[in-house]
Amino acid sequence: MSAAVEMEGLVKRYGERAAVAGVTLSVAAGERLALLGHNGAGKTTLMKLMLGFVPSSAGRLMVLGEIPGDVTSPGRRAIGFLPEAVAFHDSLTGMELIAFYARLKGRPLHEGRALLERVGLAHAADRRVATYSKGMRQRLGLAQAMLGRPRLLLLDEPTSGLDPELRQGFYDIVRERAEDGAAVILSSHVLTELEERTDRIAIMDHGRLVAQGSLEELRAQAGLPVVVRARLADGQEVSLPVPPSAKLDTLRDVLARNPVDLSIAEPGLDDLYAHFLAGAQCPS
Amino acid sequence: MSVLMILAGREFRDGLRNRWLAAATLVLLGLAIGLAFLGSAPVGHVGASALAVTVVSLASLTVFLLPLMALMLAFDAVVGEAERGTLLLLLSYPVRRWQVVAGKFLGHLALLAVATIVGYGAAGLAVALTAGVSQWQAFVVLVVSSVALGAVFLALGYLASTCVRERATAAGLAVGLWLVLVLLYDLVLLGALAATGGQGVVAVLFPWVLLANPADVFRLLNLSGFGEVRQFSGLAGLAGDQLVSPVVLVAALVAWVVVPLMLAALVFRRRAL
Asked: pTM of the entire structure?
């Protein structure tokens, strides 16, 4: 099966500044990819390129088998988009808005209602969106993105402003869509929440892709130390940063000293992110 | 349902919901009734005047008010959506950019048309019931051309809205358009005519200079179109010579809607997101 999104040496320049500076990346159907990076790293530009909002300056980009640009093509219709800090026409109710977007996509109204229910907004469907909280707007944004069972979901900073419980619900929906065969690309700079919730992570910095892979692959690439901490019977505390390959040997040594407590801290996404960004800034 | 109708419908509903339509209708109705029944109070006569007199006073009011109302709706249309962030989402749907401009325009035009037809229509009906229906054609022309004048300034406002990056700039442009076309243009023209004593180049170009301003096209259409109205409006001399035929006037108004709107669509298509 061909990839949902394929980019090769993709470049987008605004004047002198390259917002995207040669990105090669592909995303398969059913895959969840997280784009990670600071504000201005090029995540949003990448999404605009995939939506055909802006033309690329160089390189190759295929989205759902098409070159982006034609807004009424079948491929474009199969994209669901949730923009960063999504905004709506506040004077309308949630139901009126989802009905508006459903009509634009040529979808039946009951689909809009079902999606409102799925994101937990059925109770507020008849309230004006002006009265919605940030989290409710974000969920309305997700509901409209899922209209028409898109084969590609582009979610720009989808979980900013969501509390942990809503965030969990949000990733449940993302997983559902991916299991249904949709490719999901979401951007974030909240790193820790992505662990275990995406299949692959792409780290961007200044328009470049500085690393990509699953969390395990990134850990292996970075070779960051695993920290083994133990409290021994005599009250002494030890903290041993060791390379991943030496993890088990170190554990055996520590166990041999009869610890009363033991913990292993794998490098988290934050550590990986810091590592790759530092590497990108001063290439060795 | 076509994309244009969906977009126009949302815009119209917005205008209903934020009470714009109700407020605009009430203002137009109140002013129209006031002018119709109290308009001749200063000359010692209170009561309904003939429909022809009402047409003259309403036309003078319309020239100032409807462009202002239209510009206030329009200046925000594109730049406001861009600034609030609703535009990006809308354009991720299968909607072409010219459809966004045209659809929103149709919705705004419907709002303006309903407010004008209901507001003026009710006042006209009240006058007709008390003072008779002679010159009703002039009144119909007034209502229809008022909506057309609104459409012109909507289109101009849309052009302003697509050309700028910030709402404040668009608002400033809208006010400027209103000042120049509605107020200053005629002042300058009058000054030029007076200075040259109504002779020479200015006098020859006069009809064409009037066509170059939609507000004047509207005035000519209403104040010189019908005999009785012409007398009351004091334009008898001017229009007696049939400076410009009504067909040309209507064509000029249509062009004043279509050209700015197409320019707006063109500019919007090139706008970076």
From this structure: 0.88
